[in-house]
Each structure stands twice: as C-alpha cells, then as structure tokens.
Design goal:
Layout (H helix, E strand, L loop, with lengths): L6 H7 L2 H7 L5 E2 L4 E4 L15 E4 L4 E4 L2 H6 L5 E2 L1 H9 L3 H11 L45 E2 L3 H5 L4 H7 L2 E3 L8 E7 L5 E8 L7 E2 L20 E5 L2 H9 L5 E3 L7 H10 L2 E4 L5 H14 L4 E4 L13 H7 L2
Parallel strand pairs: 11-12, 11-13, 13-14
Antiparallel strand pairs: 1-2, 2-3, 3-4, 4-5, 6-7, 7-8, 8-9, 9-10
Bound molecules: zinc ion.
The site of zinc ion (ZN) has 8 residues, from loops.
Amino acid sequence: MTTFVDFRSVRQSVPIGRVLDHYEIRLRRVGGEILRGSCPLPTHTSEKSKYSFTVNVVLNVWACHSVSCMSVRGGKAGGDVLDLVALMEDCSVREAASKLREWFPIIPARIGANLPVVHPDEDTCTKGDKEQGTDLLANKPLPSVLSPIDQTHPYFRKRGLTLETIETFGVGYFQGAGVMAGRIVIPIHNERGELVAYAGRSIDGREPRYRLPAGFRRSLELFNLNRVTAQEVIVVEGFFDCMKVWQSLNPFVVALMGCAMSHRQEELLVRRFKRVTLLLDGDEPGRRAAERIASRLVRHLFVRIIELPFGKQPDQFSSEDLRVLLL
Ligand SMILES: [Zn+2]
C-alpha cells in the first residue's frame, strides 16, 4: 500500500460542502457562494462570536474570525478542507488527507460539482483579516508596476486608441523580461483602485491571446470599476471594448473580462449602480450572455440591452458610432 498522499488533489477534489455535510454542520447561504453560521471548531470557545464561521463554496475555503478561536489556531483566520478536517479530528494535515480519501472517493474531474471555476489558493486563508470574510474574496494588490512599457507602440493606433486613453488606463507594450514580455499589458485594479493584476495581450498571434497571472481571480473584479463615479454604467466584455467606449465620451463603463457575470460581479453592479446598459459582443455567446445577465440584474436595477449587429464587438466601432449607439 502506498503512503503517498497527493495533497493537492485532495484539496481540490473534495468540495467543502461535502465535508460540512459529513459533520452535519448547517450554515446559512448569505450570498451566491458564501455560507455563514456558528463555528463548529473545537478551538471555538467564544459565546459572543455567533456567526463567525464563513465558507466560500467556490473557492473551497473557510474562515472563522473570532479572535480567541484564531489565537488557538496560531492566528490563522481559516484554510481549506484539509485544515478543517485536521482541526475537527485533532490530527495532522497528512492524516486529514487520508481520512478525506477514505470518506470520499476522489474524482478529479468533478472539482466542486456544478460550481463555476474553482481556484483554490494556498494563501487565501492563511492571513488574519479584521473584516469578516473579506480574505475569502480578494485578489492581493501587487507590490510594484511593470516597467518599462512603450505607450506609443503602433498596435494602439491599429486598435484606434488615443494617447489620452492609453495613459488613463496605463496600458503599454511591455519591454521587460518574463511571461508578459512582448505583450500589451493592461493593469487591472480592484474596486478601491489598488493594482491587483496585469492582463497580457499577445500581438503576434501567440497563444494564449490573453495571459492572466496564476492565482488572479477575474471573477472578483470588474475592469475599470475604480474609475466609474456615476450611478449608471455600460457593461462590455473585453478590455479594448471598455477603452473604446470610454474614449467615445462614455466614461462610465466596466468590462466583465469575458461574457459571464460572476456572483461577485453581480453584487458589485447591484451595490454601485441604479442603471446598467449591456453592450456585449454581437455573437451567439454574447447575445445569450446578455439575456442571462439581464434576467439576473433586472430584479435589482434598471437594465437596457444594446444588441450589436452580428459579428461586431464594441471595439470595432468608431467613437462617433459608439456615441450614437449609446444615446
Ligand atoms: Zn471559531
């Protein structure tokens, strides 16, 4: 019998919901992917922290922010399924992995059954956080910016971007070394305006067309949200759509960075805006996405869909045409 335990596969393939069921831990759903309730850990002694236990079923992580509970656990706010079982069983993480393999047959293809993308991040829960639950839902700010970048690269002219747009969005052709070398780099900020990632657009046909850093969760951000101050907003799919719409004197625009709207993105839109205009690509996925997104948003705010001619996307229009389209 092998004693080797593949931690990673156990971590990723056992949905935390099944571990909660195993222990008959009942939590309440408080947002799309967030469950909350009383902390079931043996380290929890506080009578006051009633709803301190939070689970993110998509990220497959948990946290309890009770100060006393955390201090017994070495100051850690939370962890993954292995940490949870290790605490519940008072055993090592290795033993926890063996137990999980015993309890649940592991089928790697069914990561987080029915759930969208799962990106377990080793660091997600290892740090304390004053604000309850926020460490389950955050991309970490980057410590530095990419440089040198060339903001006069001919690619921008080809895409119809003006220098003002290029400078406002901080995009440029990256001249340094590394995975973003030779790509157009696009800074992505969180809601508070902190730089959390760069998207790297290939300009010589190299795949992937867009490169995003490992561990970055696109579903947690809306591109350009930090610059939007109005109560109404235009929602597009891509970075260049967003920059082109911004340039057409419609500064209040955000990009989903894809054609799906995550629960977190929905929450951001509902919280910040009263009126949303959906301007997705004029293709089958774009049109279907617009319908689906509208049906979710319409419960909370005013939604308008602008349908583009088939085969067209916003960044292919001139500023004048976009102004007319968005009137
Ligand atoms: Zn606790």
